[in-house]
From TrEMBL, chain B:
Membrane topology type: Multi-pass membrane protein
Annotated organism of origin: Roseibium algae
Chief place where the protein resides: membrane
Gene responsible for this protein: cydC
The protein, known as: Thiol reductant ABC exporter subunit CydC
Residue stretches making up the ABC transmembrane type-1 domain: 21-309
Family: Belongs to the ABC transporter superfamily.
Superkingdom, natural source: Bacteria
Keywords: ATP-binding, Membrane, Nucleotide-binding, Transmembrane, Transmembrane helix
Positions of transmembrane segments: 21-44, 50-72, 132-155, 161-181, 256-274, 280-305
Amino acid sequence: MRASGAHVDPAAEEGLCADGPPEGQPVLATVPGLAALIGDEARSLKRAGRLFALSDVIWIAQAWLIASVVADFVVPAAGGAVDFMVWMYSLGFVVLAFIRMQLNLRAGKLARQTARAVKSRVRADLLQAISSASPASELPTSGAVAAHVGDQVDALGPYLSNFYPQNVRLRLVPVAIILATAMVSWLAAIILLVTGPLIPVFMALIGLKAKAASEGQQEELVRMSGFLLDRVRGLETLRLFGAVERTRNQIADVGDAFRVGTMKVLRIAFLSSTVLELFSALGIAFVAVFVGFSLLGDVTMGTWGAPLSYTAGLFILLLAPDYFAPLRAYAAAYHDRAAGLAATEKLSALHAEILARSEVMPVHAVSKADQQSASETAPSVCFEDVSLCLGARQVLSSVSLRVGAGEAALLIGPSGSGKTTILDCLLGLHVLGAGKILVNDQNMAELDPVAWRQSIAWVGQAPRLFHGSLKANLLRANPGASESDMWEALALAGAVDLVERLPRGLGTVIGEDGFGLSVGEARRVGLARAAMRKDSGLILADEPTAGLDEDTAADVICGLKAMSGGKTLIVATHDPKVMAMTATHIQIRDGSCLEVVA
Amino acid sequence: MNGLHRLIKLQWSHHRRSFTIGIVVALIPAIAGIALLGVAGWFITAAALAGLSGVFLNVFLPSSLIRGLAIARTLGRYGERLLTHDATFRFLADLRCRVFDGQSNQAGGGSKPRSGAALNRLTSDISSLDAVYLRMVVPGALAVTLGALAVVWTVSFSPVLALGPIFLFSLIIGFGAFVLLPRKRNANGRNARRREAALDAVRLRTVDLVGGRRDLAVYGGLDAAAEAVKSAERRLALAEEESDARSSSLVAKAGFAGQVAVAITLAIVSWQVAEGALGAAVAVAVLLVVMGLPEVMGGVVPGLANIGRTGLAARRAVSGVQSGQEGGNSNPVNPDHDIVSTVANPAPAPALAFDAVTFGYPMAEREVLSDFTFEIASGEWLAIVGKSGCGKSTVSALVAGLLTPAAGEIRLRGEALSAIKEPDLRRRVTVLGQKPYLFHDSIAANLRIANPAASDDELWQALEMAALDERIRSNSSGLDAMLGETGVGLSGGEQRRLGLARAYLTQPDLFILDELTEGLDAANADEVLSRFERFRGEAAVLMIAHKPDEIARADRVLRLDAAAASMAVPLHQV
């Protein structure tokens, strides 16, 4: 009995998971990579599944209680203690029901918490990989990563908290019920054994077709939502060309076509669940017919000798639906599995890609005392034979240059010549291949790179402003600054006018999902952010005027000059307007220093 | 909840018949399923009694009843699902159109534009609203109807038998009332909003972390940014745990309540049978019916447990439908006015005139434009120059009717802009922006936005004028090639030209060029402008520009000063 009972599960899984790993193994453990479960997690999920199963198995005892009570009034035995037994049994039934409720609650909580712990671990691993990569390395686009950290990780949730325990439950509950049924009647057990595995087989036959169709339809839904979104986003254009009314009709047509397609898919999908219901109804009906005719005395076989008693007959009839329940739950949770496995794959691939693309950042821990000297006063900067390879590419070769304390220098050269890389080296974003950088005659490698970066006023080529208020963006540079400090910095950057016109002034939310600033406006705000670091002695600017109109470019140059009084200033540029500044000109070409013109 | 209520009303009024039929048909399999249990219980017991006493039992009627009920249950379930889903998808298709209408009435009405994320949410909200009818309305109607039927049926034997069904019925009513209670509603809504805000924060902060790593390294720190994502995730986990714990406890409690009802009924029927007030076979039938009830009645629990999230989506969708009706007033273009007369003015009125126009954002400290006055003569090419942020683009949005001036008047050929009918305005003014919005659709569809009646030849002509025909011809799908991530990848300059080709399919009185050649190299910019110059014919041009090459093509240049927008100084006159 045991052997054939255990046979139900692999067959059930095989039928449904045509694309799955070899049967008999927990599905998840065989998927390697980021989202693979580690020891405790798999154990907790299995435990949750076993708790669910235990709750189901208690039903066997409850069914026996009901059957006994009912048999007692249907075919009363001699003796008068009926009332007492009825109340005790009913009470026992409620107590068992209460225990089942508690088991289900605990199992659900355990499964949820474990799933959450896994999701949190996966997110932490991804974030760790991102934040420890050098900012100079090229990572996948931010939108793609955000979609993974958000939605894909979320898709793991139902897979772990729902499908996984259901899978465990499916392995235990039907076996237990078959065993309980077999103790009373071997024929009833065989009826269940035969009809049970048929369900996955038939569902798989119809389900395969439904799966392909529903995947197509899922894409269709995404496409249709995308169509509406695209048209709503482009509403201004549609309006400017007077095409709103026409587009509305298009949306109606697309929506209707989608409905027709979806219903086609659902017809098949519903057919597969109808088959499931049909077979479970058949199984129950066969058991009922067997019980009925046994009790009538028309059927005398199928039991272990003695004829089937009413108690036993009602008992196996009450058990039959619960034999099919885990199968139905498993089938319902099955799409969670597909989504979860796809997410697991995508997350592992992304993690591997980030690790492969990321460059190591220099990390050092040095006492804070050494830092003060570097940041507070204008430092001198000196490159001594600095070389750097990124991948197979030699980006810098033997760069030597010197910028004295409080001096201004321009790194001049065409784009791609290595200007940005030199600034990145100064920001401590690269581990040098050879040579060293001296800051105030101290080797930069001895400085704590995090504290060093936080002490520099830097303006990037395309300053990134973060989602949040303008004020919060400025405060990033100098968390202790006052409101008047902010206006001072904005004035230096020529951005006062701009801020005053924003819908909510300094409180305007900018960045991703916020008020859209133009390139020029973002540049001015970026400059103001750098100007917030009043005390910093070193200013770095990377192509500060690229893509700006002349007025804005003039303002930015003017702001840079105003900020740099008495400080060390290094600007990477190939803009003649910037080159007109009084500064040492350092020509850069193909990653090496050509000439220095004071 | 208000949103949920209104959404249900919307669906009800969308198609009353299918709304009702769905519920009625759903009753068939539910009743058949429960009756099946009752008949089976009755049959076995009657069989046992007959077997004992040797009395003849007519097995034909109950067994054919069982067969019929089993078929009714299985087929009814199939039919019910098809009907309710079809009705829901019809409604959602209609809802999408309504939301589009709402948005289009609102677009450019001077109100704050919705962010991309908000629009994204709006469209995905709609797809999640199938839950309202399928998981709340239909199961709710089933639970109440079946509960009531069970009470009536059991009372017909003996009132005391109805105790179990009454217990279940009052639980479901009480539970529904509890969830719909204003305080509970708000708590659920708050939880749903918290969850969504946390999810948004995870997304936004991740985008910022990945996209702004250099800036973060210098300003604020990478680890702090990663920590910020994690703290948003913790908030997300808290909100999720709260709602998950609530819904799983609801499901568990509903299951327990069902079993309590079974125990009550078990005790009562055995007492009644012992008293001789009830036949044993009917007693078992009642017991099994009560055992079957919780499954059907519990169908409403998951839907109600999720009411916070569904309610939020419903509210946004309903407001997406309605925003247009409220925002309609701010629409500067009067759709009812249908007299278009340019003949009324014998002397050619200026193509465009601004008369003391003032504009500012309501909460801003300063106005963007104040008391701004200028004119463009018929056929004239005027350039407006000035620093970024001085209000140049505001001028273009005002002429296009996307913004409404706070004071002053704008006239097209002497006619007040506010009095021009929308389709006329669109025919008379064409805007060429620096970033044309291209739809994820074919090249032809993108072009025909400007002129749906244009033939393929006309499309090719327009492409030729925009110097894009060879590029499109080089692709095997030609005009049918799709744009977007999976389709033809057009460069920034090529996208600009496609926008230009689109504009060449119109014949306006006035072109607005908003930084047309921004981001193009000198040779490309020159070609684009030369082609435009040849095409524009007699139309007047308002050009917003800052490049010397562009400005040189204008007949007249107006400098817009940031400090005083009203002090527009003519620079040179050609």
